[in-house]
Specification:
Distance between the termini of chain A: 58 Å
Mean pLDDT of chain A: 95
Order of helices and strands of chain A: HHEH
Number of strands of chain B: 1
Largest sheet of chain B: none
Helix content of chain B: 55-70%
Helix content of chain A: 55-70%
Largest interface: A-B, 35 and 39 residues
Radius of gyration of chain A: 18 Å
Number of helices of chain A: 3
Largest sheet of chain A: none
Radius of gyration of chain B: 17 Å
Distance between the termini of chain B: 49 Å
Number of domains of chain B: 1
Shape of chain A: elongated
Oligomer: heterodimer
């Protein structure tokens, strides 16, 4: 497999394992997460489509390094795995930081 | 003006999602400390990946549509904006959907 799809799929798998084995936040059981991801993918099409359109690309890929599969416009298939990894990782850390803050506040409440 | 295309696209992403914070009560921009800490791991990871992918030639940036400031290896400075703006759009979406679902539950 070319390098970009290999790394994009690896990143997505690592993020899933991080949640299921380490963080266990329950994000994947939350309907809001899946609805949000669907919305993000819908907006990814025009944004990433603009970045990658072959007629006037902002980001240029070396063809041998990509899957060469373009389901919508000129967005490489692996870009959807890349987006999944980026967005999910940030949502996981966002929730983690928020929970920590709540836990700290609760401890301070107990002490107060 | 074409050289600002990438930056303008990122600006459009900020503008389009701003109502989520202002009118839908997402509270993402209003927690700057939490936001900065939350963005950091993905930012570091994806920037390292980007620096490497650009230096090895997996991807490259069109000088016609970028301002021309690059990091070692040729990574466009706009990518740093991308790894800040796009995750914020994702978080604004998540917090907005959560808020809507919570309000529906209470109703």
């Amino acid at each position: 497999m070319p390098i970009y799809p290999t790394l994009a799929v690896t990143a997505a798998v690592v993020v899933v394992v991080l949640e299921l084995r380490v963080l266990r936040s329950g994000l994947f059981r939350e309907p809001a997460y899946w609805i949000s991801m669907a919305i993000c993918y819908a907006f990814m099409i025009p944004v990433d489509g603009w970045l990658t359109k072959h007629s006037a690309a902002i980001v240029l890929y070396r063809p041998e390094d990509t899957s060469g599969i373009y389901p919508i416009w000129d967005i490489p298939l692996e870009e959807y795995a890349y987006a999944f990894a980026l967005l999910t990782l940030v949502m996981l850390t966002w929730d983690r930081v928020g929970e920590r803050a709540i836990a700290t506040a609760a401890r301070e409440d107990v002490r107060a | 003006m074409d050289r600002f295309q990438y930056l303008l696209l990122m600006g459009a992403c900020v503008l389009v999602t701003l109502p989520l914070e202002l009118y839908f009560g997402a509270r993402v921009w209003r927690q700057p400390r939490r936001l900065a800490i939350a963005l950091l791991p993905a930012f570091a990871l994806f920037v390292v990946w980007d620096l490497w992918a650009t230096s090895t030639g997996t991807w490259d940036f069109n000088p016609d549509y970028t301002i021309g400031l690059t990091l070692p290896g040729g990574m466009a400075i706009e990518e740093l904006v991308f790894f800040t703006v796009i995750p914020i759009c994702g978080l604004l979406t998540l917090e907005t959907v959560r808020g809507i679902l919570r309000r529906r539950e209470r109703a």
